[in-house]
Amino acid sequence: MTTTQPEQLFSEQGRNPLRLVRIGAPKSRFSLNLGDIWAYRELLYFLVWRDVKVRYKQAKVGAAWAVLQPLLQMLILTLVFSRIARVPSDGTPYPVFVYTGLLAWNFFSSALTRCTASVVGQANLVSKIYFPRLIMPVSATLSGIVDFGIAFVILLVMMGYYGILPGADVLMLPVFVLLALITALSVGIWMAALNVRYRDIGYIVPLLVQLWFFATPVAYPIGELPEKWRIFYSLNPMVGVVEGFRWSLVPTTSTPDFRIIGMSSVVLIALLFAGIVYFKQMERTFADVV
Amino acid sequence: MGEIAITVENLSKRYTLGLSRRRHNTLGEQLSQGARSFFRRNPDKAGLDSFWALKDVSMEVKRGEVVGIVGRNGAGKSTLLKILSRITEPTEGEATIRGRVGSLLEVGTGFQPELTGRENIFLNGAILGMKKAEIERRFDEIVAFSEVEKFLDTPVKRYSSGMYVRLAFSVAAHMEPDVLIIDEVLAVGDSAFQKKCLGTMDLVGKQGRTVLFVSHNMAAVRNLCSRAILFSAGRVLAEGPSADIVENYLTAIDSSQVGSVPLGERKDRVGEGAVRVVGFEARVPGGTGGGSLRTGAPAEFVIEYAVKQEHPLRRMYAGIVVTDSSGADVFTCSTAMSNADFYGITGKGKLICQTDYLPLKPDRYWVNIKLSEYHGHYTIADEVIRAAGFEVYEGGDSGFVDFGKGAVVVPHNWRLSPGSDLDLQNCVSTKD
After folding, report:
1. Buried b (16+ CB within 10 A) or exposed e, B247-264
2. Among A51, B286, B333, B334, which residue has the least CB neighbours within 10 Å?
3. Contact B94 A22 (CB under 8 A)
4. Pick the residue with more confidence: A267 or A290?
5. How distant is the Cα of B73 from the closest Cα of chain A, in angstroms?
6. If you average pLDDT over every residue of chain B, what do you get?
7. Chain A partners of B1 at a C-beta cutoff of 8 Å?
8. How far is CA A22 from CA A10, B18, B47, B96, in A?
9. Does A200 touch chain B (CB under 8 A)?
10. Which residues contact A275 (CB under 8 A, 6 or more apart)?
11. pLDDT tens string A208-240
12. Domain limits of chain A?
């Protein structure tokens, strides 16, 4: 019939010892079994690929939305904050200032929103087939990368128009992209698991995202805040992300406080780890509840 | 050979009733429960609202065996498969599976309607646990098996349901797991394709793969499986050669399908309530209650009613609508259709609707029951949707019966009428 490759051969004469699948209560609450996700990395890839494909297939103008959405947002915010409210922008042209913020923010907020819905939205998969459930929030988070890429190209065009050239700091950008992903994932994993049990989460998260937007210096510079509040404000990990995006892309903006970014990263990692533990705990009943 | 592929030890699964999608427990309740479950290994401490879908099930399956799992709905078959597929966790007990597990509880899991057939082969394959390289290698075989070559680049939302199922099954049929777990998925698709699938399964077994196969198709179990296990109420009732177990099962349903479904307490009903449906039974005529309903055999639908008012009901109409498990109507039997009239009804009693030929394919069906009263105009006295379910089994002992397409089986016969000269002339003239 077909040629057998070592990984899919059914061990003839024990040449290839069969994988043992043990089913039952886990030995420890903290056995996260993350190796399982690695084993299913191709599924992760296909789920991201599916999300991206479907997103661009369904909408009539397809990819144009990835361009239009941030541009229109930028126009609205420029009109409201710069023209009407006269918010300063650290000496950067306001459209570039707000767009760099939006780039980071949209990447984060759409990842969080998709992540929240990831398990509930795929109830059919959860109840019919096994795969490491964590793949759902992770793939939902990652699938925003293409939107981000498109929005990023627009930024380059804009910066060209305004004659802004990024400096060497741009090399730090991937770090902030990663930080935005981790922020979305560490909150999103909690929300995805909670959403299965409490459907209220589906209503709460959009409100949370909106509130969070105003607590993040997307449309205004951090310098507008009174000094004494700044430290509390910076507990919001997205402050570091947005500031970092701007700093790494636009040379004229101020340097973010890396101590605060480091601190919030530590908190994020802890939140992420706890989220994974909670998710793993909850996933055992997903199929029964979803 | 002789090596054990699946070991199941004292596997139990408890479900909490009402733990459905609409449950929103209070946070306080949740916290205390969480705290308890954190320190627990004492799952027996459950509330009253729970039941064991599976209780102390132990079994062993040898490598290369094709084992049929049979039993009535709710016997725990699907729960067992879900646990062995790692979709849900057992409450107690353990199972060990040696080798790569492929499970097929549904065909086309994760199919994305917007994507093309080609794209869905990869997506579905990945979901079923196949590697990309493996899908690529077997891509042509999958396409050939599915018979949808021409529509490979069409979004599957434009596929007919037959094409959809064929494509989905083809992907699944090309998994190469060591242990294959299949739920009632062969019930879909047209019969020619079903046979092709059954053939594949047979092949899979012969290749030395282990197969666990749940089905209501007793002929398929008998033909494909060497051994079968009969489940009842979450426990293993019997196991042995598939022919014996199938026989055992058919006798068991004959003796267990007794009695009516009580409906007096159902709350989801509409109507004035002058008369109520208090029970329903689908049975083989004879009144004793024994026997299972079979395709093409006589059947009786019995509505038990109770008049809720002092004075007699002037005139009563009754109707039942038989629906399939998706809720689609299959046919209606009503007193109006058969010109039956019932006057002056009081107290309790039974309305019996009899047919000499039950035109239903082997499957599970449901009934909606409606009682109406006429006093100058019609009023709905009582209506219960999805009041009760019943099972229809194969008619004869003739093996795998091919019922063809469509929802119902109609009694019919064929005869050949030799062509007249006129017809022949027509044929010739049109050919010119």
Report:
1. ebbbebbeeebeebeebe
2. B286
3. yes
4. A267
5. 18
6. 80
7. none
8. 18, 29, 29, 5
9. yes
10. A185, A186, A187, A189, A190, A193
11. 999 999 999 998 888 888 888 877 888 888 998
12. 33-289
Of A19, A49, A126, the CB nearest to B100: A19
Closest-CA residue of chain A to B87: A130
DSSP B309: S
Using a CB–CB cutoff of 8 Å, tell me whether B352 touches chain A. no
| % chain B with pLDDT above 90 | 25
Q: Tell if the CB–CB gap between A21 and B96 is shorter than 8 Å.
A: yes
Round to whole Å and give the CA distance between B366 and B282: 10
The distance of B327 to chain A (nearest Cα, Å) reads 19
Domains, chain B, with CATH or none: 4-255 (3.40.50.300), 261-393 (2.70.50.60)
Q: Does A58 touch chain B (CB under 8 A)?
A: yes
How close is the nearest chain A Cα to the Cα of B402, in Å? 28
Confidence of residue B22 (pLDDT cuts 50, 70, 90): very low
Q: How confident is the model at residue B286 (pLDDT cuts 50, 70, 90)?
A: confident
Pair B352, B337: CB distance under 8 Å: no
B115 to chain A: which residues are within 8 Å by CB?
A: 50, 53-54, 57
Query: pTM for this one?
Result: 0.71
| Cα–Cα distance measured from residue A155 to residue A176, given in angstroms and rounded to the nearest whole number | 16
The pLDDT value recorded for residue B420 is 61
**Residues of chain A found within 8 Å of residue B31, distances taken between Cβ atoms:** none
Identify which of A23, A53, A126 has the shortest CB distance to residue B90.
A23
**Contact B96/A at CB under 8 A:** yes
Q: What is the pLDDT of residue A6?
A: 38
Residues of B with CB below 8 A from A204's CB?
A: none
* Residues B334, B337, B338: CA angle, nearest 5 degrees: 95
**Six token digits for residue B343:** 């006057």
**pLDDT tier at B105, thresholds 50, 70, 90:** confident
pLDDT category at B164 given cuts 50, 70, 90 is: confident
Percent of chain A scoring above 90 in pLDDT: 46
- Distance between CA atoms of residues A286 and A280, nearest Å: 10
H or E segment at B369?
Answer: strand B363-374
